[in-house]
Design a protein that fits this description.
Strands 7-6-5-4-3-2-1-8-9-10 form a ten-stranded mixed β-sheet. It has helices at residues 20-33, 52-58, 120-129, 153-165, 179-185, 229-233, 236-245, 258-261, 266-273, and strands at residues 8-12, 37-41, 64-70, 85-90, 107-110, 134-137, 173-176, 202-205, 210-212, 222-223. The relative contact order is 0.13. By secondary structure, it is α/β, with parallel strands linked by helices.
């Protein structure tokens, strides 16, 4: 089923606090679309940052706002900004020393990659031992030609076994967008999102204002400024793109796992095969 408007909007802002008029325009467009959730990422932040005005504009709206900032950025000046969650972004366990000292923090956003995925069991133990009950494994950004990350089926089994040895993750409030990482953490539970939700329950706005189906799918749907965000969401191009995603990848048809994984991550498959009909390599 196609939704008239996304439930969640992801918006990554650029470094620095310049061009705040343009950011206010995007913020107003987001408010007009009335999503239930807004996932913001600030690559840097200061107490006198002009982008904090965006949090003031969002405060009081019926939108659950999560802000993710670098590990060295959070301060108690973010306590009364109306955020549902304030997460710190890390890619290495060495960055976690004393990370939860700020009273504003809700949890950790851990960007999983080829170099750090084997640290996930230790990360889970760190969260348990330090009373951190919120952990997010965010979607990889693949908009600018980044190399897609995935773990193979063998590595999924390895990770699952290591997580069991580490005591499991059942006490964590855990968000996982990758269906195959999900399988490692929850081998007995089907992935809950019923297939790719790009351009349906979610959309992504990059630092330039370009709108994508999700942070992983590098297909532009339009740009805020040339169109309003609502016009992009309601456009025939977006609707046709969503219709295309509802079709199973050609290389997956007939696979006994298709009902469970629904074609896996379509953005990763597109980046790896330059086609919507290729298999997500994490499934092989």
């Amino acid at each position: 089923m196609e939704l008239a408007s996304p439930i969640t909007i992801y918006w990554d802002l650029p470094k620095g606090s310049k061009n705040t008029d343009f950011h206010r325009r995007i913020c107003s467009d987001i408010l007009a679309c009335r999503p239930l959730m807004l996932q913001l990422y600030f690559p840097d932040i200061r107490q006198d940052d002009g982008r904090l005005e965006l949090l003031e504009l969002l405060n009081g709206a019926q939108i659950a706002v999560t802000l993710t900032v670098p590990v060295d950025s959070p301060g108690n000046y973010l306590v009364n900004t109306g955020l549902k969650e304030l997460l710190v972004s890390v890619e290495c366990l060495d960055n976690l020393s004393g990370v939860m000292k700020s009273q504003a923090l809700s949890g950790i956003s851990y960007s999983v990659n080829r170099e750090n995925w084997r640290q996930l069991p230790e990360l889970v133990k760190y969260c348990r031992n330090n009373d951190v009950n919120r952990l997010v494994l965010p979607m990889q950004r693949l908009i600018n030609g980044e190399i897609p990350f995935f773990i193979t089926r063998h590595e999924q089994l390895e990770l699952g076994s290591s997580l069991v040895e580490a005591g499991g993750s059942k006490d964590l409030n855990l968000t996982i967008h990758d269906p195959f990482l999900w399988r490692a953490f929850n081998p007995e539970i089907a992935f809950p999102q019923a297939g790719c939700q790009a351009a349906n329950t979610m959309i992504y706005i990059d630092p330039t204002g370009t709108v994508y189906p999700c942070p992983t799918l590098a297909v532009s749907l339009g740009t805020v400024g040339e169109l309003s965000l609502k016009e992009v969401i309601e456009s025939p191009a977006k609707k046709e793109f969503r219709r295309r995603l509802l079709e199973a990848p050609e290389d997956c048809r007939g696979c006994e796992d298709l009902f469970e994984c629904r074609g896996g991550c379509r953005g990763r498959a597109l980046a790896l095969h330059a086609s919507f009909d290729g298999i997500d390599s994490a499934c092989q």
